[in-house]
Amino acid sequence: MKIVDIYARLKKDLNQIEKELDRSVRSEHVQLSEASLHLLKAGGKRLRPVFVLLSGQFGRYDMDRLKNIAVSMELIHMASLVHDDVIDDADTRRGQPTVRAKWDNRVAMYTGDYIFARALEVITKLPDPRIHRSMSSALVEMSIGEMEQIRLFFHSGQRVRDYLLRIKRKTALLIAISCQLGALAAEAGDLISQRLWRYGYYVGMAFQIRDDVLDLSGTEEQIGKPPGSDIRQGNITLPVIYALREETSNVELLTEVERIQAADGQTDISRFLELILNSEGVRHAEALAERYIRKAIEALAPLPDGRHKEDLIRIAHFVGNRSY
Fold first, then answer.
1. CA 159, 163, 167: angle at the middle one, nearest 5?
2. Residue 105: which residues within 8 A CB-CB, separation 6 or more?
3. Which residues make beta-bridge pairs with 75?
4. E strand or H helix at 285, and its extent?
């Protein structure tokens, strides 16, 4: 079974979530609505809502409760993308102009703040304090992750550990709590929600590593932005960290990183990409992503068997092998 079959089976509930997302981002302020809807209409995989819905199937599946978790998780993700694009000076995302490119940085920052606020408003419809604590803790960690990324821009001496902690905060935690909170909203029990948190964490780590590999090896058509966007913005990702360790390429590669930094990213990076793709950096990064996928599937082992568990396993494999 392909991942499209999972989406097809969830289509009715995902359509309901899409309508709720549309309703949530609309505002009496015309420009806020336009900017928010521009981002929403650009689409996306809606992976976080899918994780919420599948996790909710381990308990009492109630769309009136689950949709609030799913909408809130996706809104947080959307808001973080708007802010990321400001920090990164990004002009395109998913092949469309970013909010900052279509309007400006000020509009983008307030749009991101607005979407964050709407996420918090939606989640308050569920009175469970465990849900609120988990979400607020993740938001704090996400903010720290963003600041750490800025602090480490063009820092070629950073460790693998620095990178992993950063992507845990920036990406993996939100996927982890999407799984956890879906289970909590369905009253699935603490053991199941903890296992699903672990599954989501490992999948989230693999997702970001794969994303960073695609930024170096994918085409603009595949990834919706120019290849090498990360290094232009100063973001040293895992394949680059691994490649910088190699004696055969580290001197020239370090020189390339310094040259790109001096040019403020406004320079040809073809030699940098060539050095990375000819190194072992991508292979080592892909191997680590595969280890995380194996750990994610292992985390599901004690959970009750069923189609929803099989779907989570299939999504894990998709994340580990995706090309877009």
1. 170
2. 86
3. none
4. helix 281-299
- Residue 304 DSSP code: P
Overall pTM > 0.85 = yes
Q: Which amino acid is at 152?
A: L
The pLDDT tens digits along the chain (324 residues) read 578 899 999 999 999 999 999 999 998 888 889 999 988 888 788 999 999 999 999 999 999 999 999 999 999 999 999 998 888 888 878 778 888 999 999 999 999 999 999 999 999 999 999 999 999 999 999 999 999 999 999 999 999 999 999 999 999 999 999 999 999 999 998 999 999 999 999 999 999 999 999 999 988 888 878 899 999 999 999 999 999 998 776 889 999 999 999 998 889 999 999 999 999 999 999 999 999 999 999 999 999 999 999 999 999 999 988 877
User: Angle 11-25/47-56 helices, nearest 10 degrees?
Assistant: 120
Among the residues of 61-172, which ranges form H helices?
Answer: 63-88, 99-102, 105-123, 129-151, 160-167
H/E stretch holding 201: helix 190-217
Q: What is the C-alpha to C-alpha distance for residues 253 and 229, in angstroms, rounded to an integer? A: 16
Strand partners for 297: none
Nearest to 70 by CA among 145, 109, 126: 126
3-state secondary structure of 42: coil
Task: Answer whether 123's CB lies under 8 Å from 69's CB.
Answer: yes
